[in-house]
């Protein structure tokens, strides 16, 4: 089923708007070019980082906003076994998770002076992904979402760097403190991704067809692979956008609603408030836009070439799972994706023929 989006502007007007937006982006982000990108120590290791946090989960959810943060300390274990402490500011993020989960994802800010000389040096902003509930299997969901990030690293060069953390979380309640052991994911800030590629963060909403065709299809086919519909490249929902290498590039994040992760709270998303023709998050639905068929075949070939490498990523992280059935479930899920793209007809029917189209009206003279 194809979805057609009609644009009221002419093609010429569309590209003029794009060029003006890029110019504005250069001006707004000019400061980014003043410092060269340096590899951050925090994301240079693949080891799980032990950290400690103490705060009131209730206050985090109810008292913090985009501008109001909760102050606390983050302690992390150094390579020699000793612990070092960094002052951080936290706020809750994710409207759905705040309403439906016990824990919410966290936005973290660290002052430069506080990060100096620590593992967090150079990271002014970070995201911290947490489980939804304290329940059996909660950390396996986080492990699977982390694997989604690692798979995308192999698929596309424009991606977020991540680091797994084991969290000794001391929750402050009214009359007591409660200890939790959680698995989490630290995610670098989008400005770090931009700096790494000598580009700029591009915030304006644009038609997805203006994005780099290859990266766009890489992203869409990846989302199909993990059966994720909870994103929008138009409105930058669970997506950031870069301008780098003279291209507009999507950078995806937040994969907890995907069929690959298959959390207890995951629901099928909508497109423009219209229900998708699937009933469960584990069903795949291609949401990408139509591109030249040669680009589809090129990206398809990349996925086929990288098949062994992607399964190797899964296999090297098997130790993260407490329930090994969840690991094999994830592995089987990726296998079912390859069952589709390895067959010409199934690839045509499930992906290329389902791609959405964008048409622009030609200007008419009166």
What percent of the residues sit in helical stretches (DSSP H or I)?
A: 25-40%
Largest sheet: spatial strand order: 2-3-4-5-6-8-7
The value of Rg in angstroms is 21 Å
Low-confidence stretches: 1-12, 25-36, 362-366
Distance between the termini: 35 Å
Number of strands: 14
Structural account:
With 366 residues, this protein is of the alpha+beta class. Helices cover 33% and strands 23% of the residues. It has 11 helices and 14 strands. α5 (138-155) packs antiparallel against α9. The longest helix is centred in the first third of the chain and has 18 residues, at 11-28. The radius of gyration is 21 Å and the shape is globular. The protein starts with a strand and ends in a 6-residue tail after the last strand.
Topology:
Elements: E1 4-7, H1 11-28, E2 49-55, H2 57-63, E3 70-77, E4 83-92, H3 95-100, E5 106-109, H4 112-115, E6 125-129, H5 138-155, E7 162-172, E8 177-188, H6 190-196, E9 200-201, H7 213-225, E10 239-244, E11 247-252, E12 270-271, E13 274-275, H8 293-305, H9 307-316, H10 324-341, H11 344-350, E14 357-360
Parallel strand pairs: 1-14, 2-7
Antiparallel strand pairs: 2-3, 3-4, 4-5, 5-6, 6-8, 7-8, 9-10, 10-11, 12-13
Task: List the main descriptive attributes of the protein structure presented here.
about 375 residues, alpha+beta, seven-stranded mixed barrel, three-stranded antiparallel beta sheet, about 35% helix
């Amino acid at each position: 089923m194809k979805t057609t989006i009609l644009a009221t502007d002419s093609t010429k007007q569309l590209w003029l708007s794009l060029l003006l937006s890029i110019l504005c982006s250069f001006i707004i982000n000019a400061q980014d070019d003043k410092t060269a990108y340096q590899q951050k120590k925090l994301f240079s290791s693949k080891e799980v980082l032990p950290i400690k946090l103490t705060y009131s989960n209730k206050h985090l959810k109810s008292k913090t906003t985009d501008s109001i943060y909760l102050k606390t300390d983050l302690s992390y274990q150094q390579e020699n076994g000793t612990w070092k402490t960094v002052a951080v500011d936290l706020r809750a993020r994710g409207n759905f998770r705040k309403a439906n989960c016990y824990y919410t994802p966290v936005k973290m800010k660290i002052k430069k002076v506080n990060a100096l000389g620590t593992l967090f040096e150079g990271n002014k902003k970070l995201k911290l992904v947490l489980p939804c509930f304290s329940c059996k299997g909660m950390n396996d969901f986080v492990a699977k979402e982390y694997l989604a990030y690692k798979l995308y690293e192999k698929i596309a060069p424009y991606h977020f760097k991540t680091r797994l953390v084991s969290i000794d979380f001391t929750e402050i309640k009214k009359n007591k403190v409660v200890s939790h052991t959680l698995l989490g994911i630290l995610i670098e800030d989008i400005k770090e991704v931009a700096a790494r590629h000598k580009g700029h963060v591009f915030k304006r909403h644009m038609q997805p067809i203006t994005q780099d065709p290859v990266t766009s299809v890489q992203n869409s086919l990846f989302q199909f692979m993990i059966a994720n519909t909870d994103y929008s490249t138009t409105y930058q929902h669970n997506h950031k956008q870069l301008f780098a290498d003279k291209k507009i590039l999507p950078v995806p994040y937040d994969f907890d609603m995907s069929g690959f992760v298959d959390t207890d709270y995951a629901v099928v998303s909508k497109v423009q408030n219209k229900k998708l023709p699937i009933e469960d998050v584990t069903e795949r639905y291609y949401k990408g836009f139509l591109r030249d068929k040669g680009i589809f075949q090129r990206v398809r070939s990349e996925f086929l070439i990288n098949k062994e490498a992607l399964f190797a990523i899964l296999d090297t992280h098997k130790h993260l799972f407490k329930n090994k059935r969840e690991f094999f479930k994830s592995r089987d899920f990726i296998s079912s994706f390859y069952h589709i793209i390895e067959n010409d007809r199934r690839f045509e029917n499930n992906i290329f023929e389902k791609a959405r189209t964008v048409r622009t009206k030609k200007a008419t003279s009166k």
